[in-house]
Amino acid sequence: MKIIWLSLFAATLVACAQNSGPNSTSQQDWFQFGEQQALVGYEKQSDDELKQSSQVSVDSELYQAYSAGYEQGRQEYCQQDPKILGKKGELYRGICDDIRPTFRIWYNNGKASRSRY
Prior knowledge:
It comes from Vibrio maritimus. By secondary structure, the chain is an all-alpha fold.
């Protein structure tokens, strides 16, 4: 039981570290962070979420850099074949629903075909 709790605690720390943002005030770093978040399918964080989780002061310029990077990464992420994403068993968080309305349908088709084998 103790091992389970330690594993959950470690996973929580890793998840928080992944979403806390760069430890710098470089707009390029924040752009890349936003891009990487989208490329792995994470939902876009709000200004307040980033301010609370970041170790640096996130001003409007850093948030705009993050947002621009996120949108660029999201465009790229949404170009992939959603059926393959579903077949791989990867989690889809809905970030393409407004860009490609059929993305979720094809993702679910791929996910369903995975369970048949």
